[in-house]
Amino acid sequence: MFRLSSKFSEESILFLSVLKWSLLSSVVGLSTGALVSLFLFLLEKASAFVGNISFALLLLPPALALNAFLLGKFLPREAADSTDKLVAFLHRGSPLPLLSIPKVFFLSILTIASGGSAGKEAPAADMGGTVGFWVGKVLKLSPRDLKKLTLCGVSAGFAAVFGTPMAGALYGMELLFVGNILYEVFLPAFIAGILSHQVVLALGWGIPSALLRFSPTFSRGFFLHILLAGIVFGLLSFLFVEFWKRVRTLLGKVSLPLPGKAFLVGTLLALFGFFVSPRPLGLGSGVITETLLNAPCRWFDVPAKALFSALTLLGGGSGGVVTPLFYLGATSGSLLADLLSLDRGTFAALGLVGLLSGTTNTPIAAAILGVELFGPSLGPYAALVSIISFLMSGHRSLLPSQVLSLRKSSSLNVETGHSFSETMDAEESARRALSHGLWTVREKVPFSPRRKPK
Fold it and tell me: Would the CATH topology of 12-202 be identical to that of 220-392?
């Protein structure tokens, strides 16, 4: 009798927990969906307004300078003005200022509408995270529950922007720790992602799931090309993260205040837009769609977008990096397909998910994103490319506040349990491994860096 009552007590507690998180995540998902819809509406109106102005690129230098000035003058130093800072906030358990929400509506729109190379997903995720945090704060949730609800908001924002409720939920769960998924956030993150996506769809600003469908035919040659593509996208992820670091270092050596740097960055972007092409500027959504529909790419698409995204986001602009990653992945996949005489659209889709996985260490979210955006037939290949790219990119990330929870190879002596900014450089560990003749992957017991002599 005691055992039976004990089991009923357990089920009652679990039922109440499911009910609690269903209600909380519904509030966060609905609120985030409404805010993201308003953000997308204002962004489209602002972009259309700027687009109707003759020589609109002349607005880019002063717009980025104004953005940088406002960012430093009125936004608190500890405000979450990027996804990486949001990750750092969650690890520290710091409060998220309400100012993050109006910041998104003005600074991100100012950057993107004027032609800055930035994405719309980070503003949406930042908004959602802030909503989740303050809902939990008002309800006086425990610190652990507060973090869970904040992650629900991040997932809801990502899902609302890209029309991917499952990938959005998984993105929030993979975001904090590399190699460790927060299973306890599964239920609320999925509910928040689904509801935010449906709200945005209902208001006319969402992206229907599986808008483009790919049905590749399996063959031995195609499978080998998939393996090759995963390696290529992993190496490109490595190069982009390292390039991002170099640009950060270079901008740090420029002896100008942040608004001056932003004006200089805006001038460089505007000159390229005038004399070469405006394709790499702004969101680049049109180029991404054209590329997925088999349109050929320009030779400068990949290097120009990589440079301008880094300059915009590190030089005083506001916005996200995932949309530029989609651009880089799609165009590099298309160029790889041309090189190998393969279908451009299929490899553009694989490049999109592969680069996201490799640069942000979110292989499961990237694989599911491929299913939701491009249909189930591409799913197995998207998963394979995502995993290989994740492994090949090494122990690095565009989000240095991510905490590394696993070694991507047992042959590398990389310290886990710390953020990327705190761990040893991956190049040094690779050199040590190769110098000891560890050319092949071997299964062995995880070793301690300090071994006692026998």
Answer: yes
CA distance 261 to 316: 7
Q: Which CATH number fits domain 220-392: 1.10.3080.10, 1.10.10.10, 1.10.287.40, 3.90.226.10?
A: 1.10.3080.10
d(CA 209, CA 162): 9
Cβ-contact 391, 421 below 8 angstroms = no
pTM (2 d.p.): 0.88
pLDDT class for 446, splitting at 50, 70, 90?
very low
**12-202 under CATH 1.10.3080.10, yes or no:** yes
Exposed (0-12), middle (13-18) or buried (19+): which is 1, by Cβ within 10 Å? exposed
Write out pLDDT tens, residues 302-321.
999 999 999 999 888 888 89
**Tokens found for residue 82:** 């990027």
428-434 contacts at long range (C-beta below 8 A, 24 or more positions apart)? 429/395, 430/394, 433/409
Residues whose CB falls within 8 Å of the CB of residue 368, separated by 6 or more in sequence, listed in order = 164, 166, 167, 170
- Separation between Cα atoms, residue 137 and residue 419, nearest integer Å: 26
- Domain residue spans of the chain: 12-202, 220-392
At 264, list the tokens. Answer: 């200089």
Consecutive H or E run containing 403? strand 403-404
Does residue 119 sit in helix, strand or coil? strand
Radius of gyration of the chain measured on its C-alpha atoms? 22
CA distance 282 to 286: 10
Contact 198, 362 (CB under 8 A): no
Q: What is the DSSP letter of 320?
A: B
Residues in CB range of 14: below 8 A, 6 or more apart: none
Token pair belonging to 79: 């405000």
Q: What is the C-alpha to C-alpha distance for residues 400 and 164, in angstroms, rounded to an integer?
A: 25
Question: Which burial class, exposed, middle or buried, applies to 187 when counting CB atoms under 10 A from its CB (0-12, 13-18, 19+)?
Answer: middle
pLDDT in tens, 158-193: 999 988 889 988 988 888 888 888 888 889 999 999
How would you class 27 by CB atoms within 10 Å of its CB: exposed for 0-12, middle for 13-18, buried for 19 or more?
middle
- Amino acid, res. 420: F
Integer angstrom CA distances of residue 13 from 5, 142, 145, 148, 183 = 12, 17, 16, 18, 18
Q: How many CA atoms lie within 13 A of 154 on its CB side?
A: 28
